[in-house]
Amino acid sequence: MEDYATYLPPLVLTHQEGHTPPKQKPTIFWIGCCDAKVSEAEVLPEKEIFVQRNIANQFQAIDANALASLAYAVSLSTIDEIMIVGHTDCGGVQACYDVAQGKARPPLHWSLWNWLHGLTILAKAHTKLTPYQLTQLNVIQQVNNVRAVLGTLTNRPLKVGGYLYDIVEKKLVVVE
Ligand SMILES: [Zn+2]
């Protein structure tokens, strides 16, 4: 066994006796976009973060993955804020914006249009907004979606904040 253990990678070794992995103590639950230019570890390098990322930073209660992640995150006593983080130049927001403006539907796979259904409806209901403003409104919508279910998951008064990350300025701007 000892010989075999020498061939195991460190991750496997941590589960053996005498190798206790450090406990996670995230203070933030981050709901962000998949976009590679918006990495939570780069935006908040000093924080320990519990992460949920998807196209155009959506939070929908019918999304079992997002809901389970939120439920687990708020069960951690260390979590004190839920951050919904949109970003400038978001391809998902831009696609919905284009459709709402009557432009030709970008050639995305049907699964993406399915995923972006709610955001497309939001864009069509607010056609006067710029893409930047639609990105902000999308963040506010997701903040509201989180707030709508949060009370069913925890009694703790957690902050739910909406933010926009400017990928050129590399700055986080408060939206809500
Ligand atoms: Zn994006």
From TrEMBL:
| Gene3D superfamilies tied to this protein | Carbonic anhydrase
Which reactions are catalysed by this chain?
hydrogencarbonate + H(+) = CO2 + H2O
GO MF terms held by the record: carbonate dehydratase activity; zinc ion binding
Does the keyword ATP-binding feature in the UniProt annotation? no
Tell me which EC number(s) this protein carries.
Answer: 4.2.1.1
Q: Which SMART domains match?
A: Pro_CA (SM00947)
Cofactor(s) needed by this chain: Zn(2+)
What remark does the entry make about the cofactor? Binds 1 zinc ion per subunit.
Q: Name one Pfam family in it.
A: Pro_CA
Keyword set, alphabetical order:
Lyase, Metal-binding, Zinc
Which GO BP terms, alphabetically? cellular response to carbon dioxide; cellular response to oxidative stress
Q: Which parts of the sequence bind Zn(2+)?
A: 33, 35, 87, 90
Family note: Belongs to the beta-class carbonic anhydrase family.
Instruction: Please explain the role this protein plays, according to its UniProt record.
Output: Reversible hydration of carbon dioxide.
Q: What is this protein called?
A: Carbonic anhydrase
Q: Which organism is it from?
A: Galerina marginata (strain CBS 339.88)
